[in-house]
Amino acid sequence: MATQVHSRRYQRTFYDRPSVPGARPDSYNARMANGPDILVIGGGIIGLTCAIRLREAGATVAVYDRGDLGREASWAGAGIIPPGNPDRAATPLDKLRAIGSATLPDVSAELANATGIDNGYRINGGLEFLTPADEYAVELWRAEGVAFERWDGPRLRDEEPGLSPPHSTCYHLSGMGQVRNPWHLRALIAHARDLGIALSPHTGVEGWCVENGRVRGVQLASGNRVTADRFLLAAGPWSERHLNDLNCRPTVRPIRGQILLLKTEAALLRRTLIDDKRYLVPRGDGRILVGSTEEPEAGFEKRTTEVGLANLHAFARTIVPALANAKVEASWAGLRPGSPDGMPFIGRVPGHDNVLAATGHSRAGIQLSLGTAQLVTELIFDRPTCVPKDAFALARRPDLQAKPAFRS
């Protein structure tokens, strides 16, 4: 039996304009000349999305990144977008994910209109294979009003004849979607530039400039100092050392994930397939992403391994036997920012009320990015927040029993 509730559009669209689209009035340029209102450390999916939202709220914003913008875990991810209903989400984490799901269609259209760049967003549906231990997710979907349907073997063979499914229960989620991460990041970067956000790739931040107990600026690797009124730390797994320098010690560690890209002559799979922490994502052009490893022991070593890629290929051809003949087109690895309980850290740094952090999004950066940007903007401008303010506090006790509605 299918369960379905349509999510309504959540609040306003992401790119509501504070002024004339594309305009950068002299007053804005003058304000930027004196330093930005908000300085963002980290130019990945979280940092860029937050920067755009803050700019749309009227702030002057600058973004600094140690490397290329968006080339770490943000670029490497598969771009899976689970469905969601923000008004009925059971937990703060699920609500951030649902905000992204509800607003991404409009955001994608508006990004394309503003920049001419298609981010590849589309709804292609998904298949979740759940073991008995994972069946709790079904009740969370039902409570949230997410459309799902249990498929038996004959139905699954009819819908996806190329599958040799695992021995677990299959659920079809018609609202599951995807974006192409590199395309989405290109659109964000282009739109940020159009809005007048100062983007500084290959400009690492070495430390904080603290005067009389208050952060006044940052010291760059070049030796230059940049001042700002407020700061947002969104540097993924590199955030931990910057937080430690402010005597804040949440655990944010790199977790390496490897991905394999296969190319086939025929379309072998229509829907995204998720089996525990592994997945197949069909791109619609004969390519299928196969992911992902989860390697906390790798530290900051961002490289693929023969064993990791072999395991991914074995998973792919076990689920879709015809993939044994697929061409391996590419492979890569990224470093996800992991936390002890799998939930992000979003909030003010204790003892430094003008410094916020947004990090630790683990496997879910792109799907949590819009909700995170909304929460960060609400916190910075002292507005009512979409989730409790302390839900993702940096000083919170990890909730090791937390069970989100979706695993990827």
TrEMBL record:
<dbReference type="GO" id="GO:0005737">
    <property type="term" value="C:cytoplasm"/>
</dbReference>
<keyword id="KW-0560">Oxidoreductase</keyword>
<dbReference type="Pfam" id="PF01266">
    <property type="entry name" value="DAO"/>
</dbReference>
<dbReference type="InterPro" id="IPR036188">
    <property type="entry name" value="FAD/NAD-bd_sf"/>
</dbReference>
<dbReference type="InterPro" id="IPR006076">
    <property type="entry name" value="FAD-dep_OxRdtase"/>
</dbReference>
<feature type="region of interest" description="Disordered">
    <location>
        <begin position="1"/>
        <end position="23"/>
    </location>
</feature>
<protein>
    <submittedName>
        <fullName>FAD-dependent oxidoreductase</fullName>
    </submittedName>
</protein>
<dbReference type="GO" id="GO:0016491">
    <property type="term" value="F:oxidoreductase activity"/>
</dbReference>
<feature type="compositionally biased region" description="Basic residues">
    <location>
        <begin position="1"/>
        <end position="11"/>
    </location>
</feature>
<feature type="domain" description="FAD dependent oxidoreductase">
    <location>
        <begin position="37"/>
        <end position="379"/>
    </location>
</feature>
